[in-house]
Amino acid sequence: MSQLTIHSEGRYLLDQHSQPFFWLGDTAWPFFSQYSREEAEHYLRRRAEQGFNVVKGVLAWPLGTMYEKPTPQPNYKGELPWLDNNPATPNPAYFEHVEYLVKVAASHNLILNMLPIWGYHVNDVHLFTAETARIYGLWLGERFKNFPNIIWAIGGDRPPVGYEDIYRAMAYGLREAHGGVHLMTYHPSGGSSSARFFHNDDWLDFNMIQTWGELNRVYPTVITDVVRTPRKPVILDEGAYEAGPEYPLGPITPLLVRRQAWWAQMAGGFYTYGHNDMWRVEPGWIASLQSPGAAQMTVFKNIVTSRLWWEMTPCPCLIADGAGSGKTLNVAMRTQDCSCGMVYLSSQCYTLVSLGEISAPEVRVTWVNPQNGDQQDAGIFKRGNHWFRTPDFWEDAILILDAVS
Question: Rounded to an integer, what distance in angstroms lies between the CA atom of residue 241 and that of residue 247?
Fold first, then answer.
């Protein structure tokens, strides 16, 4: 597997064959430290089978926000990432294990989106200066420059305000060493986007967004970044985790996971999934690999990639009435030649769809269940506005609109 690149239009990524790369990420923050080697191997194998192609992990993981410790977690051998807790002196033994996992990921055609640190190290305990950040970045960039299945993510759940010089120094150190062969981005704090701080920086190849539990912000936040200039790909990189207990809106069900994914996609972005038990390493966390939400991400990917998704852009005009709002927002996208569209109905509802936005006298309409991929032929319709209702017993639904030639 060779390194990803950015399409010339800036809307999406390209794979090693210069073909559109459909990002479906998963979040495993403690992957390099708290997972045993056997657990990590099992995790990578299973996620590849499910169609995920990007995995997020933190090289120096201090435990998650509100649980951090000044010294990052050791790996399964008890090795720490830094000697004497000094990031200017990385521990070669620790990064031998990282290299091993990078190679295993590559064997499964997985990209590792690696965070050198968690923002806690910069903002809270002040382990870094601009100089030590650059030294650490240089060391990592040199150490891993020959492994193409890597994307670097600076930051880590903290706003960079007041520390921009440190985060930039790390990014420039990485790039100086790897010579630009790896894409780079920034992982922001909750309710924020990398675009707010670094959009015009030449090292920031694409934007990442964290909405945390604010589901109503997913679509507007993603589409805001999608239309920025210069154009860069946009990833909803951290939303609400499946089964997460800490969100004010209640338990994060598979339906809420699906809504986040579809809202991000329909806004012109991409999605990174996450499960509570996996990042917290709860007892029996391995079972979360089989969670309903994760399985439905496979369905999500299969539905979107069944059409020319890279030609699709947000198309609110497909919904003439019944767009909904907040947690029950209905959204749509359409190919640039208007030959195909998709409408996401996020609940049991009626929606007036403007089939005149599809460039054909007749349009074939297909229902698809986002839970399991089941399809129903809704029929062929003349151009114009037509009402559609979510099929009985479905929690949400996709309408695929194909021009009849």
Answer: 9
What is the DSSP pairing of strand 312-314 with strand 340-345? unpaired
Burial class (CB in 10 A: 0-12, 13-18, 19+), 133: buried
Sequential pLDDT tens for the chain (405 residues)? 458 999 999 999 999 999 999 999 999 999 999 999 999 999 999 999 999 999 999 999 999 988 999 999 999 999 999 999 999 999 999 999 999 999 999 999 999 999 999 999 999 999 999 999 999 999 999 999 999 999 999 999 999 999 999 999 999 999 999 999 999 999 999 999 999 999 999 999 999 999 999 999 999 999 999 999 999 999 999 999 999 998 988 899 999 999 999 999 999 999 999 999 999 999 999 999 999 999 999 999 999 999 999 999 999 999 999 999 999 999 999 999 999 999 999 999 999 999 999 999 999 999 999 999 999 999 999 999 999 999 999 999 999 999 998
- 246 - beta bridge partners? none
Q: What distance in Å separates the CA atoms of residue 365 and residue 340, rounded to the nearest whole number?
A: 10
309-403 shares the fold of 5-304 = no
Fold exhibited by the domain 309-403: Immunoglobulin-like (2.60.40)
Cis ω for the linkage preceding 188 (within 30 of 0): no
pTM: 0.97
Residues with Cβ within 8 Å of 176's Cβ and at least 6 positions away in sequence, in order, are 137, 138, 141
Q: Is the distance from CB of 252 to CB of 242 less than 8 angstroms?
A: yes
Roughly what angle, to the nearest 10 degrees, separates helices 218-226 and 254-266? 20
Q: What would the two tokens of residue 153 be?
A: 């993510």
Chosen CATH of 5-304 out of 3.40.50.2300, 3.30.43.10, 3.40.190.10, 3.20.20.80: 3.20.20.80
Place of tokens 């934007």: 207
Q: Enumerate the domain spans of the chain.
A: 5-304, 309-403
